[in-house]
Write a structure and sequence with these properties.
The chain is mostly helical. It has one domain (about 5-295). The chain is built from 14 helices and no strands. α1 (about 5-25) packs across α13 (about 250-265), α2 crosses α11 (about 215-235) and α6 packs across α8. It is globular, with a radius of gyration of 19 Å. About 50% of the residues are buried.
Length: about 300
């Protein structure tokens, strides 16, 4: 894959992630968030299965045999973090707009180095602090503090971003130690589906006619976001440096906002737009300044 193809793959991947927020939002018209996540991630598991069988199955034993126990532990940690991240994000969409959910979700970018410092004592680059400040100011402009429901939704997304950050950190660890990215994706989608099934059985109902009525949203979020986008991300990042990757992937919030405006008529006011710009700037600063120093 050439660098241009990798750039296009990254851009398409980001477009899928951004527009998936629409599928997540409209996919709960007739079913609850737990049922949606159960079916979505099981579809994602099925979507990744052929990629695994074609590209990684032959090498699996050789890759994980050196420390199978550690691979299992890391896979479970990753799956649990993804479960909570997707759970809080999905429930939050019941209370807040797509743009808020998308931009608060990318809070995970400046969160990652802070969490890494506390977990592994790795030095924090100074650019993280102005990045965090910009994100907090952006969050102030983006959310509507006069609406208690919106505050609840936005708070849930910030908690979701914390679990996304943990998920990203442990994904980096497992991929570095075990070169089996599609297998990791396969395992994590299965874990999330099973974990989501438990609260779905307790608090919600599986009404198949309702699930089938949301099949387009479930298939979009499952196959494209959970399957195709994951594979695109893997191949894109093989040929793209971290700095341009950060620029492209941070556009997820922009794609989600534009899609929400076109499809759901969720229009941002001037304060919301300023908030989005502050958050986007904060995310980019945390990623780009360390790279400029290296250069």
């Amino acid at each position: 894959m050439t660098k241009t193809q990798s750039m296009l793959a990254a851009l398409f991947c980001t477009f899928i992630w951004g527009t998936t927020f629409i599928a997540q939002d409209t996919g709960m018209d007739l079913i609850g968030p737990y049922v949606f996540n159960t079916t979505r991630f099981f579809v994602g598991f099925l979507a990744l299965l052929p990629f695994y069988l074609l590209l990684e199955r032959r090498n699996t034993e050789a890759v994980i045999s050196k420390n199978k126990k550690r691979f299992i532990i890391l896979s479970v940690i990753i799956g649990i973090n993804l479960f909570f991240a997707s759970l809080f994000q999905q429930v939050a969409l019941l209370f807040t707009d797509v743009a808020n959910a998308a931009f608060f979700t990318i809070f995970y970018v400046p969160m990652v180095p802070i969490i890494v410092f506390f977990l592994f004592k790795k030095k924090i680059h100074w650019s993280v602090w102005p990045s965090v400040l910009l994100c907090v100011v952006g969050g102030y402009f983006l959310t509507n503090f006069q609406d208690a429901t919106v505050r609840i939704g936005d708070t849930l997304v910030v908690v979701c971003a914390l679990f996304w950050a943990l998920h990203i950190i442990f994904i980096g660890i497992i991929i570095k130690e075990f070169n089996a990215p599609i297998l990791v994706g396969l395992v994590q989608t299965f874990i999330v589906s099973i974990c989501s099934l438990i609260p779905a059985l307790i608090f919600e109902q599986f009404i198949w006619s309702n699930i089938l009525s949301q099949k387009i949203q479930i298939l979009y979020a499952g196959i494209l976001s959970g399957g195709i986008a994951f594979v695109l991300q893997i191949y894109a990042q093989q040929n793209i440096a971290p700095a341009p990757s950060a620029i492209i992937f941070s556009l997820e919030g922009v794609f989600a906002t534009v899609a929400a405006w076109i499809i759901l008529s969720q229009v941002l006011n001037i304060n919301n737009i300023i908030g989005c710009c502050f958050i986007l700037a904060g995310v980019l600063i945390s990623q780009l300044l360390p790279e400029f120093k290296k250069t």
